[in-house]
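Technical note accompanying the year-one report. For the benefit of new consortium partners, we illustrate the data format agreed upon in the data management plan: each record pairs a sequence with a structure-token string. No post-processing was applied to the example shown here.
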Amino acid sequence: MLRRIEAVLPWSPVAAIFGVILYEAIFEKTRSLILPGAEIGVVVVVAGLLVVWLATRAALSLANRATLWAAIRVRGRAGRGHMTYLRRTVTPLTASAVICSIVVFASMLVGWRLMPENIAGLFSITDGNYSRWNYEYAYTWGHWFDLSIFNPFSGLGTTFWTNTPWLNPGALVLQLPLPALARITISYLIHLSLLLSSLYCLGRVAGASRLAILFAALVFVVMFFPPFTMRWNTIVHASIAPFRLVTMAAANFIICSLIIAAHGAQRHALVTAIAVGVTALFWGVYASATYFIFDLMVVGGFAVVLLGGAPHRIRLLASAALIAAAFVATGMAGYIDALASVSIRARPQFAELVNGFKALILDDAVRKSFFANLSTCQNQMEQYLPCLSQPSFPFFALSLAAAVCGTRSRNVVFRAISIYSVLLVFGLWFLGVAGSIHLFGAFHEFSVQHIAFAASVFTVLPLMIAADWLLAEARAFAWPLFIPPAIAAASITLFVVIPDIYVKHYPSLFRAVITGRYKGDAETPIIRYLREQIGLRPGAEFRGSVATYLGQSETMSRLTSERDRYQRIAESPLYLWLATQNPHQNTGLWQFGIPSFDEYAHMITKALVLFTAELLSERPFDYRIIRAYEIRPDILRMIGVRYVLSDAPLDTPGLTEVERLQTGGYWDVKLFLYRLENVNLATWSPTEVTVLADGNALLKAMKSDQQSLQKRVFLSSPPPVSNLTAMKRGSLSFDINEFRFRGEADGWSLALLPLQFSHCWKPVDPAGVSHLVRANYFMTGLIFKGTVDVRYKFEFGPLNSQCRKLDASMMN
């Protein structure tokens, strides 16, 4: 007993310090104080130490009894060997590690059960739901191993996000016939296990002990995983985009391959490194081709640092070169470039970086502004850097301190990791400060935060190195090492998640933890009506879409009076979900098979944004969110919108109310569904042609001539035929990566399809008599003669990416 007390005493100052930190991080904002001041933090830490110590003693006692029982039951050499093994492995340190790990994961699971729709929850509202829906619908609307899958549900046809499910077991389990929250929980556990397995591989290849790796894993979970991010204000990408965990895992395995190539003593180190690296490369691309670029940037930087102390530099260079060659030779580089070229999100340009550095060196005003912001945390810097004002400061500061100390490690790989971690901190700080003055243009828009999350593993690796040193040099005093993550996890769940997220509105806590709060999006009467009227499935005829006109309800105006209607649209999904259990937009519609004009995030094309800005809005809007910002019936009819969903009554000619929903209560909401008549369902066949090569002029001409859009079409180039006649009939249907048009005409006719034009549409029968043209700026015109039944497939991927680049050139 005295020996145990001697082991605990050196940790008393640490407990006191951590108590103060805990108070600042956990209790300051909740104001639910039992004791005055920071004493509550000390009490919590001391209580945690006592609980873990007692649990350790109990575990050791049980282990000893188990060994005695085994020795009695299994006599002879086998029994003695079993007893010796248990006594050697079950120590206070391992027992503490196991107990604290259980505490962390139990706290995490309880948080998951209570707050799935929160921004720090599971597949959180909007972004997270989009990721999950993308996984699930890829099976219905795509072929296995397709990288780009045509999406007929949003924005007049676009592509699904690049987070494909084919090589992600965390996505595959979402197809299981289980309740929604059960599937989501299993999915997140698999995503997490993939990341932690890569962290284990990285730690072992670097030379760390298993317990040190376990400590780093616990710290990563507590700092970067739901529900704990809601307290620390760290990056929430694990909640909104869990596929980032897979891209990070793939990057970790590539780093493992580089370390094997640089330091491996085994005979086939080069072959192993290349095999692991190339496999991880394609795994990351299939996890998300666009976001994996940020992880590859982090890997590239580490490869440069690793090269400095590598005993086998030629082998390292050969491995890196072959992995990069595989990336280019398979067309992945061109494919990702094509994806970025068509997206509305501006790509960082090398010239912007050069011009930014020139301005910083030569422009005195820019330099003064930069240094004036050097000591501040701006532009989301507090989410990934040690900022004094943030509860995450102790973690990031300790990580930086550990990295600085690790630069003197005798382990060459540890030294490279530590040097790179320090460089990342100062590099991200530089980029964050540069972003505050927009020094590098489009690079700051979203790149820095994504790079920071991709590099988040390098914030826990220095702590792993420090833990490995402690376990090797002072093992007798290392058993409390796992207690801080356990106490932090339990405290956040008990004193933040439960009071602030749950108890205020949902008092039956125990039932919620057991059954879970989230049951999936509800099928409200409006959703049911839309599904019956315009629901879309593979091979079925297109019957129209819905446009949402939200952000104007009285309740939302009262809750967010400082924002205008355009700004409130971004907050409407969570508000409507709380009120009706369905956001009534985006995935709230799509998961029931309801196509909409709505579009969201980085797959929005430039053409769709410019079309919306000119014809369906009156002022600037968030380009990541496409909506019918203004109701213009003729434009909506032309693009196939048959219903308009509004959160306020509309008095617009041509709209007929067909359904209404009102909830009452605190989250009072009124929803109105209106129908438009004479909508273009691939049934419009204009005969008057106006050719305008300039896109801006074409959009302005359409805006001024809205009433005649059913009979007049605006083309960007002369049509291949003249003297168009109106077709007799036409219909449109969608199947996996293709559309089918059936029509009849006496002569040459143009069918105006409510579908975005792309050069990637290729006829299944090249000998067929039909032509596709770009019509009305971004729509598809199909010119045909007689009776036709034609199919076009969407062919875009690594081996045929030029078609999308042609689209981009026309959009520009």
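Partners are asked to follow this layout when depositing records. The two ends are 76 Å apart (CA to CA).
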